[in-house]
Amino acid sequence: MGAGALALSGCIDTGALDWDLRRGAGDTSEAARQATAAAPTPDANGIISYPGYQMATARRGETVATMAGRLGMNPEELARTNALRATDPLREGEMLLLPRRVAASPQPVVIGGSAPMAGGGTAGAIDVTAIATTALDTAAPATRPAGGASPAASKPVAGQPLTHRVARGETAFTIARTYNVSAKALADWNQLGPDMAVREGQTLIIPVATGPAPNPEPVPTPPGAGSPTPEPPSAKKPLPDEKTEPTGTKPKGTPPSPDLGAAKSTPSKMAMPASGKIIRGYDAKKNQGIDIAAAAGSPVVAAEAGTVTVISSDTTGKGIVIIRHPGDLLTVYVGLNGMTVKKGDTVKRGQTIGKVAPGDPPFVHFEVRNTSKQSFDPVGYLQ
């Protein structure tokens, strides 16, 4: 279900997206992230090796099963380690965590086994809680921030980068900010696609920092010295004589005051996507949406008019629909089947987009986000 948040990257043109909202001459986005080492280079067999783990890169047209055959390992074991199925196709360059070691060329030793993070501490001290309640949680990577199941979580291995297992609701951007590295460096180290998409259960290599992020705070003055007083402009050159007008004089060319009463409007509310009771509320860290209990087979409707940008499915095969609305808002619907819309369709408010998939219990997961992928409490948008 949380794959809905991961599929968001498919509906945004990353080529035109200003990730840090700092476009122009004042762009300081790179200064806000640590400098990182060059991305590791796979050997001739596509293997990246470190003391505690190995990653393999997929070739064009490969599936999990064909990669496993090429590397001489069990397809089901490789699939389970990466929260995939043996028949799943792989994107060229996609990296998978290997469940056991294979023969490979050694990689250069990495300086430092943990990446410093914003606010101090190391990545090994970050608590990244996986919400998934499926068998995906058993596919633990070799290293993982504290809170995970890996026994090496609190003991980063010297000479190798940390790894991070993608949890429900995380994106490449939120993971990069968690470890205080740039999203571009994270994409380069993990050979992510142009849409920056990641999936729940995927293992990522965290780029190794080569220098700390700059300190934006001003240098304090020594104790007892006091703060320097700026020289007033009048100390250099007297201000020119100023022609003043009596108080209350209306400046020439002043436009008439607008009728604020006529401009008042009531914020529009979204329609409930399914008829039922909210059984799980919004939590910015653990549940970036709400879960609505509804009878299996009952209709799921568009909360507001918009354009369908993503049609996908999660790891359990349940459908995902993402609709883009005016005002740069996105709504995400997870847990559907029998979908009646396709990518690119224009839908109206209240239009049926699918049905509630069977489950125990059956429910629809609903999210409201902006195009920067920030989530909001959907209850504030619903009637």
Automatic annotation (TrEMBL):
Domain of life: Bacteria
Bias (Low complexity) ranges: 141-159
Name recorded for this polypeptide: Peptidoglycan DD-metalloendopeptidase family protein
Region annotation Disordered: where it falls in the sequence: 141-162, 208-272
Compositional bias ranges of the Pro residues kind: 213-235
Domain LysM: 162-206
Coiled-coil segments: none
Signal sequence bounds: none
UniProt source species: Rhodobacter calidifons
